[in-house]
Amino acid sequence: MKILLVEDDLQLLKQLESLLSEQRYLMDTAADGSQALDKIFAESYDLILLDIMLPQIDGLEILQEMRRADIITPVLLLTAKGSVEDRVRGLDYGADDYLAKPFSIAELLARIRALLRRPGRECDTLLTVEDLSLDTISRRVTKSGEDLDLTPKEFSLLEFLLYNKNQPVSRVTLAEHVWGDDFDPFTMSNTIDVHIKNLRHKISNETAGNSPIKTVRGIGFVIKG
User: Fold this and answer.
1) What's the predicted TM-score (pTM) here?
2) Considering only Cβ atoms within 10 Å of each terminal Cβ, which end of the chain, N or C, has fewer?
3) Which domains are delineated in the chain?
């Protein structure tokens, strides 16, 4: 699952980005309204965490622009504690839920899970190939019914490859989706190869030879099934 976090408090932005990445969500971030709109219209997200008070374009205007363009991505508004009027306007403009600052991490994660499991999304929550299964809501990966212990980056790589099953994915595309702004084209290819090697070992019975992840020469990787 890919989440866009829009927050102008850079310390909070980094904290939440790190927290949600540890929960194995793919993360994109934006620190102002203009950057957020550019990303919303250029990328596809499963959920948007949207602060209302933003530089350049505020969160409510972003929400209006999204809904006018028929972008139905769920939106969780992050609001100041006393801004009841903004919350009401946000819901009227098409927000799916709101969370008042300061909020607990446990509540934030619960709200995220609730929005991602809403009716109409069930068909996307379980990704499978052969005896390998990945649940995008519970963040659980199993092979032959046994839980696998993947790192957040390994989970994100596997999730993205499964979303694109039978479609070759380039190293650059993988890097942009999994590492985001930390993408470095000069070092990332080797980094991806190391993570793919470790992931193959974990999802194979004995050796990487029978892994569902195949290398596509000159392009990147593919999962077939």
Assistant:
1) 0.61
2) C
3) 2-116 (3.40.50.2300), 125-223 (1.10.10.10)
